[in-house]
# Entry
Amino acid sequence: MDHNTLSGWVELSGYPKFTTTMIPFLLGAVLAWADGYAFDWHVLAISLLAVFLLTDFCFVLNACSVYSDLKQKGIDFGRVEKTSTLHSTAVSGRFNAFVKGRISVKQAVNGAYLCVFAALPLGVLLHFYLNTGPLTLPLGLLGIFIAYSYSRGLRFSYHGLGEIALTAGVGWLTVFSGYYLQSHQVSLLPTVVALPWVIDVFKLKLTREIPDFECDLLINRRNLAIRLGKTTTASFYLPLTVCSWLAFIPILFLGVPYIGLVLLSIPMFFTVKSLRKFDWKTEEGLSAITKNAFTGMILIPVALIGIFVIKIVAAV
# Structure
């Protein structure tokens, strides 16, 4: 792989967005530690690498699918002088690596599948050598299935199921898997703790579909935003935000030091910023909403990690 192709792969992958899978996975591991299980750094390092590879597989394959569909329609985005960031969408630099000719769709697809082939031995190592439990490989295969089926195969994102698939994979599976690989046990704890994060993932997924509305409509990607319309989709933002905040309540009964709950003010701050001037009808307003909403969302598992680390320290 030459330098140009490598730079195209890096830009196409959008590595800053990998925080959406790796941080909640780390949250699951910390929850297992706080729940009294020994922390296995070897398992954590190997499993985080597997999560990284599967995230790359999902993001790149999805970008290739959407871009290929646009090309078939005879539509192409002009060059956007931006690289992929935490907040970019399909119409704000997501396909720039293709447009600039740094990497071809075929090269990107092959690279995506190589990520899966590299992750599979890691799953076998975790399952059979490090004895992380009988659900290790099934959980990994479930992650591969969701990542693949989001844009290929069953094409969940084209049939109004993409939001559910992404919420299940990024919102729940990451936290649950992080917990299970450390504890080797099935528990409701990661699900209860992850609930605010799960709701916020679904909310942001809906919101981020608004700027890509015309793009998705052109390729007949019948996601929920297309089915509901922009106005109805935007109307879900506030109630989902309230539900996400209410979902923090069960954490009060998990024996966490209340001082740690102060950390929740950090993601809430950015969420409030996204609500103050909720103008989704202009490009500038929608950009501000998605930027603050994304920041608030990703800080939820960060804050929860801090809360449970405080619990662990307080118990020493």
Q: What stands out?
A: The chain is about 70% helix and 0% strand. The two ends are 49 Å apart (CA to CA). The chain has one domain: 3-315.
